[in-house]
Amino acid sequence: MNKKIKKINASILIIGNEILSGRTQDKNIAFISEWLNSKCGITVNEVRIVPDIEKIIVENILLLSKKTNYVFTTGGIGPTHDDITAKSIAKAFRVKYEYNKEAYTILESYYGKKKFNDGRKKMAKMPRGAKLIYNPSSAAPGFKIRNVLSLPGVPSILRSMIDNCKRYLTSGKKVHSQTINLYTVESNISKQLGLIQKKYKNFVDIGSYPFFRLGKIGVAIVTRSTSLLKLKNVKKELFNLIKLKKIEILKL
After folding, report:
1. Residues 6+ apart with CB under 8 A from 2
2. What is the pLDDT of residues 183-196, one digit of tens each?
3. Domain total for the chain?
4. Mean pLDDT of 196-215
5. Domain containing 202: what range?
6. pLDDT at position 252, please?
C-alpha cells in the first residue's frame, strides 16, 4: 500500500434485486467496512443498495466516485443476463465494455476450452483499462477502474479476494476503537456525552448504542479515533461520568 495520509474514505454500493427483495441477506457491508477500517485506515461514509438497473447503477457510480475516495461495489459481475455491473460502470465512465485479455486467459485456463461457454466468457468482459482483482476461489476476477473496485456478491468469494484490493488503495491512519458497556439508559448520560463529544469533536467520534441483555437495559459507548492519546483522555472523562452517575459497567 502507498504512503499513509490522514483521512481516506469510501462508499459501498450493493447491487442486486435479490438483496432488495429480501431473498438474499447481505453479509458484505459489515465485512468490507470492518476490513477497510481496521486493515486500511479507511472510513466508510456511505452505503447504498440498488437494483440491477443500468441507469440507476450509472447514476450512483458517478455520484459516489465524486463524493468518496473509493467506491466498492458488490454483485452483478457473474455470467447471467442480469449481471450488468461491469457494463454499467463502463457506461458511467464512457469507456468501451470489452474482453479483458488477462481475465479471458485466466478463465479459459480455469474452465478449459470446451467448457468455456458464453456465460463464462462474459465474466471476462469489463471496462477498457480496468485492472484485475484476482480471485483465488473461483478464478473470475473483480476489477478496478479509476476509484471504483468491483467485487462479486458471494460473501465467501469476496472475502477470499479482499486482500488483493490493497495494492490499489492508499491507506489512512489506523482508526482505534474502544467500547464500554453500561447498565443504564441513554437519557441518563446523553447530556454529558454531548458535552464530551463537543470537546473532542475534531478528534474522537463517540457513539451510544442501546442493548438488552440478561434482562437489563444497557448502553454501549463506542469511541473511535486515530489518536490513542485522545481516546485515553475521553476514556478518563467517561469513567468520571460513570463514577458520578454510579453506573454499573458490564464486563464481557
Report:
1. 169, 170, 171
2. 999 999 999 999 99
3. 2
4. 91
5. 176-250
6. 58
